[in-house]
Amino acid sequence: MTRFHISRSSKRSLPRGFTLVELLVVIGIIALLISILMPALTMARKQAQSVACASNLNQMGAAMTMYINDFKCYPGHCAHSVGGVTMAVWPARLRHYMNNNRGVFHCPATEVGFAWQYLYGAPGGKFAAAGDTGWGYDPGELLLDVFSVPFSYGYNDWGCYAYGPAPDGLQKGLGGDLFNPAYHELGVGIVKSASEMIAITDNTPDGSWDYNIDPTTPAEYPGKIHFGGCNVLFCDGHAQWYKQKDIILTNGAPSTPQELAISQMWNNDHSAGGV
């Protein structure tokens, strides 16, 4: 009978597993790579959000241009609904020129709760009635209550001038409180330097008066959500990034050359100053 002999050298060797030390080294290398890559990934995400925000503002600028061509005036900031709600009107009016796209009015760097909600109810109260259609609302949709509904972007309503009883004399922005009989929508010709006048920016959102921006009121400052600043839409339709400190007035009425230059960016007559 023939016998087969298998030499030691011909036996298949079994694979050797990783030692604990080797596994710890690999895990350490992976952790190191993650720690190196995370800041770059975070920066890329923030940059993408800023670019998307600027795109939103560009679309608002195009919508505002079409609105002005149709009505020969700026949309104004807020008004009273039939039910007495103080509601923002500029987003409701502009969105009709963007296929009713509410998503454009949400900065991706803000919380999801600041997005314009698709909520409907029985007309009246916090929901638009038929008499509110002139302000851009559809009957039954949620009104943008300036005291309770959060929002990402703010409108330059008063410029550098405080609210007062005179009509257009103190409306240095693009139109303020349309519920006051002394005020009304401002005609397009009132803006003297469209390429240098602020129209809409990221705001400092807190759920109260989120729909307007003010260079002298901290709670209504343009935001600093993008690298310490915000994207700014100008009246000619172009958008540009600014540090917050370069477009606000922290000392009240402007007095220094820099402050006077900032105030010109807010005033429709391109005047330097404010109260």
Question: Features of this protein?
Answer:
single chain; 275 residues; alpha+beta; five-stranded mixed β-sheet; two-stranded antiparallel sheet; 3 helices
Structure description:
With 275 residues, this protein is of the alpha+beta class. It has one domain. It has helices at residues 20-71, 90-94, 257-266; strands spanning 78-80, 86-88, 153-156, 198-202, 212-213, 229-234, 239-243. Residues 6-10 have low confidence and may be disordered.
Main sheet attributes: strand count, strand direction, barrel closure: 5 strands, mixed
Shape: globular
Task: Estimate nothing, just give the exact number of structural domains.
Answer: 1
Q: Provide the gyration radius in Å.
A: 28 Å
Run of helices and strands: HEEHEEEEEH
Cα separation of the termini: 115 Å
How large is the share of residues in beta strands? 5-15%
Estimated helix fraction? 10-25%
Average pLDDT metric: 88
Q: Which consecutive residue ranges, at least 5 long each, have pLDDT under 50?
A: 6-10
**Number of DSSP E strands:** 7
Secondary-structure-based class equals alpha+beta
Layout: helices, strands, pairs:
Layout: H1 20-71, E1 78-80, E2 86-88, H2 90-94, E3 153-156, E4 198-202, E5 212-213, E6 229-234, E7 239-243, H3 257-266
Parallel strand pairs: 3-5
Antiparallel strand pairs: 1-2, 3-4, 4-6, 6-7
